[in-house]
Design goal:
Glyco_trans_4-like_N, 13 helices, alpha/beta, about 15% strand, Glyco_trans_1, single chain, 13 strands, about 40% helix, 2 domains, glycosyltransferase, Rossmann fold, Glycosyltransferase family 1 protein
């Protein structure tokens, strides 16, 4: 039975969507027939977290996933050594990066190419070139690459010159236990947005758009996910929107359930993404979505969303106005969104990822 070492060095409890992907994928892989065995190589921080979702032993690497230098050296050199030491037949890197050189086949899940396609939006510009180099090195060593969307697949070929025949699109899904709150009464005057304050998330334009909505119907905008002093606060004050904008840090599961159950819609104004996991989760929970008109979001939501131009606050304001003033539209989006989300499942993601493992073992790239 092949042994797969899963690279969990970046798993620290602070990485958002990539950690959701890793948890949901391996929780579902644990439900698949036992063709493989697994061992997880944990960061120092990750080893202290609940890893009951992982279908195998989790071993501590002693490497910090929060210390960028330790983490980078660990990805490039330590993962391969650990795989050899443990007798692994395959390495899976679920968070885009992996070892620089190994004799053991490697499958990488590369979620996006934002450091290449949109370097101007990276919040840590000093790390942009090093991360791009690490992605190139890891992809050259990879026997197989899995990615979340056709959009990302095209960019991986474009920027990394990776062979398309060794590249597999495996769509993600919403949460295995979607947040639902049927006991709450959905409001018509609350827009929800979630995420860190990285520039590509484009929350600035969402706030500017709110200022353009007629005050008579202007909804409350709740934006969760900040850490420390919220960089949006000065803009909110400048536009005199304190009455309408509620800036929050990370919220508890109970708070999230209430927001999902009472909001008019989830707004996702990103300039670029590799997929749209929050969109799927919202639709699966019966929450309407209004989102940037990006090819990757069209792959996820199809005709089940209200789209807008993320670079144009007027366009975003028009979408907000439609959402809060047309209850029939919200009811339609709740219905068709749930139907769209049901087309995606983690069991399918797991099965297709295991196919990638088989392909890498059968066709290792030397």
């Amino acid at each position: 039975m092949p042994l797969v070492l899963v690279d969990l060095l970046s798993y620290t409890g602070t990485k958002g969507g990539m950690e959701t992907y890793t948890r949901e994928l391996y929780r579902s892989i644990g439900d698949q027939p036992g063709e493989f065995t697994f061992v997880g190589l944990a960061s120092r921080e990750g080893f202290e977290l609940d890893t009951s979702w992982f279908p195998g032993e989790v071993v501590p690497s002693g490497i910090s996933g929060e210390n960028r230098v330790q983490w980078a050296l660990g990805e490039l050199f330590a993962v391969g050594r650990w795989a050899s030491r443990l007798g692994a037949d395959l390495i899976h890197g679920p968070a885009t990066l992996g070892p620089a050189r190994t004799r053991i086949p490697v499958v990488l899940t590369m979620h996006d190419m934002l450091y290449f396609s949109h370097p101007e939006f990276m919040s840590t510009p000093l790390y942009t070139e090093p991360v791009k180099w690490m992605e190139k090195v890891a992809s050259r060593n990879a026997s197989w690459v899995v990615t979340d969307s056709e959009t990302s697949a095209s960019e991986i070929v474009k920027y990394l010159d990776y062979p398309r025949e060794r590249l597999q699109v495996v769509l993600l899904a919403g949460a295995s236990d979607p947040t639902r709150a049927e006991h709450h009464e959905r409001r018509g005057d609350l827009i929800l947005a979630m995420g860190n304050r990285r520039p590509h998330k484009n929350f600035d334009n969402l706030v500017r758009a709110l200022a353009l909505v007629d005050p008579a119907i202007r909804p409350t905008l709740t934006i969760t996910g900040s850490r420390g002093d919220d960089p949006l606060r000065p803009l909110v004050a400048e536009l005199s929107l304190q009455q309408w904008v509620d800036l929050r840090s990370w919220v508890s599961q109970e708070e999230l359930e209430e927001l999902y159950g009472t909001a008019s819609a989830l707004a996702v104004p990103s300039y670029a993404e590799g997929f749209g996991l929050p969109i799927l989760e919202a639709m699966g929970a019966g929450l309407p979505v209004m989102i940037s008109d990006l090819p990757v979001f069209r792959e996820v939501a199809a005709d089940s969303a209200v789209y807008f131009d993320p670079a144009d606050p007027v366009s975003i304001a028009a979408a907000i106005t439609r959402i809060v003033s047309e209850p029939g539209l919200r009811e339609k989006l709740e219905r068709v969104g749930a139907e769209q989300a049901a087309l995606f499942s983690w069991s399918a993601t797991a099965a297709q990822t295991l196919d990638a493992f088989r392909s890498a073992l059968a066709n290792p790239r030397r």
